[in-house]
Amino acid sequence: MHFEESDEEKMFRDSVHEFAQRYVAPVWKTYDDKTHEIPRDLVKRMGEQMLWAPTVSEEYGGAGLSMTMACIAAEELARADLSIALPVMYLVEASWALIFDMYGTPEAKKEILPRVTKGDLFFGIATTEPTGGSDLVNTTKTVIKPKDPKGNSFVVNGEKVYISGVRESEKYGGVYWTLGKSDPKGDHKAFDAFILPLNMGKGVTKGITTTLFEDMGRMGVSTGGFNIENVEIPKHYIIGPRGRGFYEAMTGFSAARVLISATCLGAAQACFDIGVDYVKQRKAFGRPLASFEGIMFEAVDSWMALESDKLLTYRAAKAWDQHYKEGRKDITDLDIAKWTAAAKYRTPHDALDIITRAATWHGAFGYTKECPLEASYRGVRSYTIGAEGGAMVQKIVMGREIFGPEYLPYRQEKQM
């Protein structure tokens, strides 16, 4: 068991920290409060530094980062952008572009990924439908059918909602790793994964109409949805073998979940540091607030949670790397699902508690927009609710691996 970062990881953390504090920290408040859009020059700069979809292989302009390194970057970006809007965009690129790189056709990857790693195209994920998200098997709104008997192209119809980056894709260009069913009544083996080109740089694809939602946080990145009506996609946009889309999605969720954990970890650490500095300086009744046990003990609880969540997050990232990078057979994709679900459940909830305590230490100021902690509260809250799988679903994933799949509650109900 090694609890220290390697020299390479330390150097990488230092470089991302320097980048984030120089270019992200000074501007995040502006796009959270006013513009509600991450500056394009910042996205381009991240592309130049190979920080935009950095997990993609070097062949397509990425850095081929391990999941551990990708988590380090997510953590440092979140320490600089307390709203976590930029880290949210980063983690979507770092996870789902990676899954496309793993399973996509060479022709599609050559066409799309170099533009993604440069920051020219947003690469998103679209699985959630109006009828639900976490119950993926029973989503039926999006259907993909061959257009011709030979399957040279496909036609997609359906609807996706609560999707990140819709406005950015509509405005600048974007594609989505998308799921559809060949048979709306089929089970998990009826899913196909494919690239949906929302805007390849020449305007929104004919047949796609978009809508936007107003979130309570992460204001620098949009959330929306789109209707898909008779949109034709070429055969090489199918990702992996037909009927394997569900399994590829599960791999993608595991990647995204551990990056979410790292993002919330970074935001919580930043808010904790701000809170500790404040209570050491602010006085009440003639002594520093930090000297009161009520605050000191809360700070200790926060510190313990941070240390625990660091170990959990990087344990999950290491398991990913051991299986997918190193080829370890004794670690399975189900093991990774368990660890990443644990990280995704635990860290956002702990982070919300840590941010709440730190904001409370600030008194009335902690309830104002001038206090930067409120942006973190709004941003992190999204991950205690859902995104990449609802909170309670993470416990079902863990329970499945602890007790065995035969004890899953929905399977028990079918047997009764």
Task: Describe the structure in your own words.
This protein folds into three domains: 111 residues, Orthogonal Bundle (Butyryl-Coa Dehydrogenase, subunit A, domain 1), CATH 1.10.540.10; 117 residues, Butyryl-CoA Dehydrogenase, subunit A, domain 2, CATH 2.40.110.10; 171 residues, Up-down Bundle (Butyryl-CoA Dehydrogenase, subunit A, domain 3). It has 13 helices and ten strands. The protein is α+β, with helices and mostly antiparallel strands and 416 residues long. The longest helix is centred in the middle third of the chain and has 37 residues. The strands form three sheets. The protein has a four-stranded mixed sheet, with helices on both faces. A four-stranded antiparallel sheet has the order 2-3-7-6, with helices on one face. A two-stranded antiparallel sheet has the order 9-10. The protein is globular. Helix 1 runs parallel beside helix 4, helix 5 packs antiparallel against helix 8 and helix 8 packs parallel to helix 10.
